Amino acid sequence: MEDIQCSKMNEVKRLAMEYYADEGPGACVVERMEVLINNIFIDNPVDVYGHIVNYFQQFTKPLTILKFWAWEIIDSIGQTAVQTDLYGTVLNTNKFLSTSSIAIPSVNVDPLNYKESLETERQQSVERAIELINGHLSQELSGLEPTDQCCIDEILINFFMKMKQEMDMNKAETTPVEAPAPVVSDESAPQTADSSKKKSPKSPKGKAKPVVLLPPAEPPEVLLPGCSAVAALSKSVCIGGASVRDVALYDYIACLKHQQLPEGLRMPLPMVTILSSGKSAPGKLNCVKDFMVVPSPNISLKMAMKHIVKIYNHCAKSLSGKGGMGRICNDWGTLCPQFDRPEQGLDLLEEAIKQLGFTPGQEFSLAINCAGHEILDYEKGRYEVSTGLLKSPEELVTFWTDLVIRYRRKNIG
């Protein structure tokens, strides 16, 4: 029995010698332990074990991605979205790194059954995104460092580009090829008396009616099923990378862009929507989607946002007093009053700015987001500025020009 124990002990010693030998995996451990023991006596730290941890932490392997886990949630406006958690491995321990949520865009909808198609398409997109994140994409990104944002984004983009190519190939194989129509030359085409006498349409004054060239209708954007997984994973990795580097998220994003932290960071000039209009809002006005205020660059962001909140509250109070419509808001929190003319929204914002003691065009400027192709009737070739009021392209240009000239002193943009 003693011989067996002695034999096992000798085998352990032999393995330990091989492990700590010059060519073994633990060769550097002995050297570093000697350095640490010698230095710890000189440094005399208050927290001895914390000093040891800090010393060896510089030699540890970097944190790597263990897995992603996604599930369905309900966002702040009651629609389905995707929540994604990121888990990593560091110091031989699995730990939670970050979580993020992403809204699901829905554009592949049937215009005849918009609401039902919208809900169905969004639900299918959520389910497909969760399936991809918890399955193939989690395995594909496992083992990578969350700080390698560019590499991870490239992997995600290439994956969905390959998926798109496969879908296009399958669609091309299943779509029947239509035979080309026979070409009939002008000489062989039968001529009739009526067709030879046809003339171009004329206006009531006898002049030829000018041909109106309209921009082509925008083709519907087609999204791949589950494509929101790209944004969900990229966002989760970005937040996790900032956590690993122990820096603020905006500092981390700035470092990704400039390869180093810039000396000074600047906030963009806020353009805040106060009032919303357009076809989806109550009222007849269609040509303006958003009425916005833009603070002067001379005003600090903190003060500008405080004043913008006061402008918003003044507009809400004013609208409530006029018809009880002040607190009707859309999903983004902007007010949706019943406007028939764009001047109503601009005048209301001007009044709110003056109530704060400011001059429109100086401390705060007005801006509008025009609805372009959304109000174009392609069959009639005219723009529906408001319900029942159609304008030609030339008339629309005149309409906007007159509006800008009248509000030029308010710096409308």
Question: What key attributes describe this structure?
Answer:
single chain; three-stranded antiparallel β-sheet; elongated; 15% strand; 413 residues; alpha+beta
How are the elements arranged and paired?
Layout (H helix, E strand, L loop, with lengths): L1 H18 L7 H17 L4 H10 L6 E11 L5 E11 L2 E11 L10 H28 L7 H26 L18 H4 L31 H18 L3 H10 L13 E5 L11 E8 L5 H23 L18 H14 L8 E7 L5 E2 L4 E5 L2 E3 L1 H14 L7
Antiparallel strand pairs: 1-2, 2-3, 4-5, 5-6, 7-8, 8-9
Helix pairs in contact: 5-7, 7-8, 9-10
Could you characterize what this model shows?
By secondary structure, this protein is an alpha+beta fold. 44% of the residues lie in helices and 15% in strands. The protein has helices at residues 2-19, 27-43, 48-57, 114-141, 149-174, 193-196, 228-245, 249-258, 301-323, 342-355, 393-406, and strands at residues 64-74, 80-90, 93-103, 272-276, 288-295, 364-370, 376-377, 382-386, 389-391. The strands form 3 sheets. It has a 3-stranded antiparallel beta sheet, covered by helices on one side. Strands 4-5-6 form a 3-stranded antiparallel beta sheet. A 3-stranded antiparallel beta sheet has the order 7-8-9. Helix 9 packs across helix 10 (342-355). The longest helix has 28 residues, at 114-141.
